[in-house]
Amino acid sequence: MAKKKTDEVQETPEAAVEETVVEETAVEVEAAADETPAEVKAEEAAPAKEVSGDDAEDKPFNKGKRMEKIGVVSSDKMTNTVVVRVDRVVKHPVYRKYVRKRKKFMAHDETGAKIGDKVRIVETRPLSARKRWRVVEIIQKAEL
Hints:
The protein has helices at 2-9, 13-34, 37-58, and strands spanning 68-78, 81-91, 98-108, 118-123, 131-140. A five-stranded mixed β-barrel has the order 1-2-3-5-4. By secondary structure, it is α+β, with helices and mostly antiparallel strands. It folds into two domains: 2-58, no CATH class; 68-140, CATH 2.40.50.140. Helices cover 36% and strands 34% of the residues.
């Protein structure tokens, strides 16, 4: 019988951990019971304020750094759309000669750009199947 008494007296580390967890939850329950429902609601609403915060109202929605390109309008025959030709100079990897490369972008245009105008375009969400750019400003009007 002496063995049985020693078994009852000895505590395993697992049992000690369970007891501390039970004690902590009991303390939390008592603390929650002490608070009034208005205080609980105020605490729940406080983290939501921090997330939205006053900073979010003051700052405009950040859309990140959008790519900008400068090019010449090569076509304006479509409604609210222009084709902008962007020229760039690239060094050839093998021959080390500078090569002129061109690419055409379709851009949404509400500014009224005409053929030959130098414009700045900026990346935007897809507006149609091929249109993902928007004309921000006309840098230089075409000479007629």
